[in-house]
Amino acid sequence: MAFVDSHCHINFPELSADIGDVLSHMRDNEVICALCVSVNLKDFPQVLALAEQHSDIYASVGVHPDYEDVDEPDVALLVKLAQHPRIIGIGETGLDYYRLKGDLEWQRARFRTHIKAARESGKPLIIHTREAGADTLRIMAEEKAAEASGVMHCFTETWEVAKAALNMGFYISFSGIVTFKNAKQLKEVAQRVPLDRILIETDAPYLAPVPHRGKLNQPAYVKHVAEEIAVLRGIGLDEVGQITTENFVRLFKLSNIVH
């Protein structure tokens, strides 16, 4: 049995202070690799260093839509940084109309920059969308995100949004939220997404799944997300692990994933 945490932030101080224990616990729980996702350029060297130091950690490069007053990436810089062999994705990028209000055209412009960089670099997109489904899909279509492919990470939107993303060749990733009792709509989406397009993640250090809800999250807990998917789909836990691992390898064009 093997699992992959397709999205985490183990460079954040809550986890990096005990990175040895975090990685040991991850491996003890049959999580064979994790993708540490960049959220800004200032901390990108820490993200990359983790991937360089540990063969079961990969990295991405990008600037999260929640970060307003930070160094703004351009296409050329993202493409250059993405050439590193341990960088397997562009992002996380996207739109967030929940945390920030007002004129968010800068978010939309940044999102377009990341899509262009993904198309040019050949690396898939890692997309964050919150209360911005319509604009996210519109910009994805306008910028031809389908040419890059990618994943809708920590998915919390409707089936209609999922279906539109699937039609553009994207994968849908479920976090610990899918284990929450009140996440009925999300559980229904998890039952409908084709098995060959599902990923699992923690988004650690946030959103710990049941039975750890409310506590500090970590990659080891992605197994609980897999358990919920198995129940919702009526299949075995081993099968969920195998399918989601194969999906991760295929999306991120890996050939030498650690086993």
Task: Outline the structure in words.
The chain has an 8-stranded parallel sheet. The model has no long low-confidence stretch (mean pLDDT 97). Helix 5 (105-121) packs across helix 6. Strand 2 (31-36), helix 3 (44-53) and strand 3 form a beta-alpha-beta unit. The protein has 259 residues and is of the alpha/beta class. The protein contains 10 helices and 8 strands.
Which short descriptors sum up this protein?
259 residues, TIM Barrel, 8-stranded parallel beta sheet, alpha/beta
Q: Into which percentage range does the β-strand content fall? A: 15-25%
* Coarse morphology: globular
pLDDT < 50 runs, ≥5 residues = none
User: What would you report as the Rg, rounded to the nearest angstrom?
Assistant: 17 Å
Order of helices and strands: EHHEHEHEHEHEHEHEHH
CATH topology: TIM Barrel
Q: What would you give as the CATH superfamily? A: Metal-dependent hydrolases
Name of the level-1 CATH class: Alpha Beta
First CA to last CA: what distance?
10 Å
What would the average pLDDT be, to the nearest integer?
97
Counting structural domains, the number is 1
How many distinct helices? 10
- CATH architecture descriptor text: Alpha-Beta Barrel
Tell me roughly what share of residues is in helical segments.
40-55%
What's the arrangement of strands in the largest beta sheet? 1-2-3-4-5-6-7-8
Alpha-beta classification: alpha/beta
Largest sheet: 8 strands, parallel
Strands, total number: 8
